[in-house]
Amino acid sequence: MKNKGLIWLGVLFGLCLLTGCGWETAVVPPPPLPTLVPTGLPAATSTLPPPSVAGATPIAQQPANTPAPTATPTATATPTITPSPTPTATPIGPCDERLPRDDLFTIVTQTYGLSRDYAPQDLVLLTDYLPVNVTLGYPTEIRQIAIGPLVQMMADMQNSGLEPFIISGYRSYAAQAISWDKWNREEPERAAILSARPGHSEHQLGTTVDFGSPELAEIVGIADIEFHTYFYQTSEGIWLAENAHRYGFTLSYPRGAQELTGFFYEPWHFRYVGQEMATFLHESGTYLTEYQLINQPEPCIP
Ligand SMILES: [Zn+2]
């Protein structure tokens, strides 16, 4: 019996060597971080109060603290109208009240996209606010609402001896179309997970930033590498994973998020959602899209 068990173990081990046991060896190293399960995680968010961000439309509200506005009685309704029979239904405004210019929580995935006409109205140039060793001199833009926290975060990182820089910020629908074409030309088999179709990038929101680290090239072994999963091993990546929420930035695509978001793990890609929401997501071990798709009705597409 013992020998049989050993033989089976040997066979399994051999199969693992041959197949890699399902690891995406080229892109994703084994996860030392807590793994997120995209589905079946409703409990993670149910015990915490929903964050409410000033100035944002109440897209992320939970029913526990907010009465359902849909129960408004009409003139002929009796005063003893019963509450909504579906306690899990989230109060949510009509679609035209949830246009992305008005909130920080617009869902953008490979499924839910932005219109080609959407562009934020309060973009500012990073070069007007940040030193050249952070902006690299590029004319990158983000929304005004996120610039203060971003500047503070970069300053705190530099004061900690880190050397973060910013590779990408706002990207227009047209610019995303060009980027999408480029990825499809250069790496057609990976384009769908490394890039987004126009309208399906969070960068079009103007609140999303891709960070870089001077350590990445050495870790990966490619001199001019910009994006790689190994960013999570850099000093800057480690710091951002632990601290970005304190400035209102959240990791959009953690490990295991591709089922819901359509995007692979992107440890460099952070989105500004405000300190309250970012901290809520960080502490509850979830991410924005997962939180929204579990707690909200099907999003409308502006
Ligand atoms: Zn990005």
Would you mind describing this structure in some detail?
The chain is of the alpha+beta class and 302 residues long. It has a domain at 92-302: Muramoyl-pentapeptide Carboxypeptidase, domain 2. Helices cover 32% and strands 7% of the residues. The chain contains eleven helices and six strands. The longest helix is centred in the first third of the chain and has 18 residues, at 2-19. Bound molecules: zinc ion. Zinc ion (ZN) binds next to strand 4.
Give me the CATH fold name of the domain at 92-302: Muramoyl-pentapeptide Carboxypeptidase, domain 2
Major beta-sheet overview: 4 strands, antiparallel
Class of secondary structure makeup: alpha+beta
What's the total helix number?
11
Number of strands: 6
Bound ligands, each once:
zinc ion
The CATH first-level class of the domain at 92-302 comes to: Alpha Beta
N-end to C-end Cα span: 63 Å
Give the proportion of residues in helices: 25-40%
CATH architecture of the domain at 92-302: 2-Layer Sandwich
Q: What's the alpha carbon Rg, rounded to whole Å?
A: 22 Å
Entry summary:
With 302 residues, the chain is α+β, with helices and mostly antiparallel strands.
